[in-house]
Design a protein that fits this description.
14 helices; mainly alpha; 75% helix
């Protein structure tokens, strides 16, 4: 059965339960992931410190959110070299934290080192098997390497964890297209559109899947839908 993603309050409550269940290390990982997304959350910072003390203290490990923010700034300012060095440093400094491995994978994938990216994503998932972002990213790099069936397995896991992930359905459609399973690809693109109606590329790719089945009329309508969402989507004109 598909599970809804946890709300921030539910994430914090889960972390508190882990501390009470004498599993503070897992709680620390959860707090750190949370703070990487919400670095100014005072209650989470305070609770993280308490969880760290429960496993013998962690001194300055509360600095992870700031370090993650630094990494994101380097990446967003188009400094891939320094960003990669920062990601590697964080992976070494926080070996139990999956997020730096995932970010390093993203940087490697941007540099078209997809095998290196796959290795990083797998390290993140070894630490957190239900890390949805890493699963989706792993699927994308596996797809880039031509491992389409493995990529599809990743997207299926994402959908099991979050059945409302439009990107996972879209990505699975792309891998199915490579396997020439055009009908299944069209179904996934349509689901992606149902979840995110303004997803221009999903409309475009649905048109491709329909065209590959010989359904020219519906394909043309999909291309028109893509252009209604994004009139600058040049590929929709050339189909």
């Amino acid at each position: 059965m598909n599970q809804e993603p946890l709300t921030p309050d539910e994430v914090l409550e889960t972390a508190r339960r882990l501390v009470k269940a004498k599993n503070p290390a897992a709680a620390v990982r959860l707090y750190q992931q949370f703070l990487a997304k919400f670095p100014q959350h005072k209650k989470a910072k305070k609770e993280l410190k308490l969880a760290q003390r429960a496993i013998g203290g962690a001194g300055d490990r509360i600095s992870l959110p700031a370090e993650i923010n630094k990494l994101v700034r380097l990446y967003e300012s188009n400094q891939p070299g320094p960003a990669l060095l920062q990601a590697k440093r964080l992976c070494e400094a926080y070996p139990e934290q999956p997020m730096p491995h995932n970010v390093m994978g993203v940087i490697l994938a941007q540099r078209e080192d997809h095998q290196g990216a796959v290795n990083s994503y797998r390290q993140a998932l070894a630490l957190e098997p239900e890390y949805v972002d890493a699963l989706n990213n792993l699927g994308s790099s596996l797809h880039a390497l031509g491992n389409y069936r493995e990529a599809i397995d990743c997207y299926k896991k994402v959908i099991q964890l979050n059945g409302k992930d439009a990107d996972a359905f879209f990505n699975m459609g792309n891998s199915l297209m490579e396997l020439e399973d055009f009908e299944a690809a069209a179904e996934n693109y349509q689901t992606s559109i149902d979840l995110r109606p303004m997803y221009a590329n999903a409309h475009l790719r649905l048109g491709d899947a329909l065209k590959s089945q010989g359904k020219i009329g519906p394909a043309i309508q999909s291309y028109r839908n893509a252009l209604e969402v994004d009139s600058k989507l040049v590929d929709a004109y050339s189909r």
